[in-house]
Each structure stands twice: as structure tokens, then as C-alpha cells.
Amino acid sequence: MKKYQVQEGEQLELLAVKEDNKRKPAKRVDIVSLRMVKESSLLYKDRNVKSPQDGYKLFKQFLGELDREYFVVMCLDVKNQPTMINVCHIGSLNASIVHPREVMKTAIMSNSASIIVAHNHPSGKPEPSQEDIDVTKRLVEAGKILGIEVLDHLVIGENTFVSLKEKGYM
After folding, report:
1. Using CA atoms, how far apart are residues 66 and 63, in angstroms rounded to an integer?
2. Which residue has the higher pLDDT, 28 or 96?
3. Contact 84, 75 (CB under 8 A)
4. Count of CB atoms within 10 A of residue 122's CB?
5. Strand pairing of 16-19 and 70-76?
6. Which of 57, 80, 97, 115 lies at a CB distance of 3.0 to 4.6 Å from 48, suitable for a disulfide?
7. Contact 122, 71 (CB under 8 A)
């Protein structure tokens, strides 16, 4: 393993470094800032989410009719008021690859107290798959580590939905 600190008498040069008795070009490190960009907005008359049904109404308003699987994150403040919705992943006809890192990125950047996640089943049948249950458990674990509670995972079908919290998977 390479050492982090420069040894006494050893100097780093601006354009090249001496490593293992060979000169190598210095590594350029980018300085960045992260920003979220508002693409649009919608009105939510109920102001806060009190139940899975409330979450479903807002997600359904946002998602509409889709031909592919969309995995969506709703960020909430401490009063359970939705602050933003983010499409985390767009999948295929019957699959969507979801990683906790991508889900939590939005929640962290928006200073969320909690989140509700949802995805649609284009088949119209909202029965959760084993993959849906596994992803939910991983998200809940990640949320506990980060201090962002995952309140529910809704699977949305045609004019109906299933709450994984109500089904006892969370």
C-alpha cells in the first residue's frame, strides 16, 4: 500500500511525481459542485403524505401511463410534505435495476427526513416480486445507516397499488 504522507526530503513536483524511481505525470483532480435541477413541478393539494393511498395518488399523478418500469423516489421533509420526486431508474418492460446508492443520492442532496419509493408494473398487476422485496430490504438498511427513513415502497399497477409496508415486508 502506498503511503499518504510525503517522506522528509522527498518533494512532489507540480507537473510530475517521482514514484518507484520513475517519473510519472501528476494526476489531475477535478474540483466539482453538485446541483439538482428542477425540471418541472406539480401541485399536491393534500400538502403531506399520511398514508400509502396518499403516496399512490401523488405517484399516479406524476407517472401517468407508462410502457416501461420506472423506479421513482419521493423525498419528504420532517412533516411528511413531499419536497421533490426523482426518476431514479427507467427499466425495461418487466425489470429495473435499482441500487441504494442511486436512490439515496437524491434524498441526501435534498436534505430529506424520509422517502417513499415506488415503481410501476406495466403489466398492470401490482403484485410485488421477490426482487421488489429484496430491494426494499436493502433500501431500508441503507436508510437506517444514513438516517433517512424509508416509509414505504409502492408497487403501482393499473388503477391499483400494493404497499410493501402494509404487506409486512418492511
Report:
1. 7
2. 28
3. yes
4. 18
5. unpaired
6. 80
7. no
Q: Where are the beta strands (DSSP E) in 1-124?
A: 16-19, 22-25, 70-76, 82-90, 114-120
**Which SS3 state, helix, strand or coil, does residue 95 take?**
coil
Label residues 60-94 b or e (16+ Cβ within 10 Å = b): bebbeeeeebbbbbbbbeeebebebbbebbebeee
Instruction: Report pTM.
Output: 0.80
Strand pairing report for 161-163 and 22-25: unpaired
Alpha helices in the chain, H assignment, sequence order: 52-63, 100-109, 130-146
Among 50, 67, 63, CA closest to 124: 67
Neighbours of 110 (CB within 10 A): 16
Q: Count CB-CB contacts under 10 A for residue 51.
A: 12
Strands 114-120 and 16-19 come out as unpaired
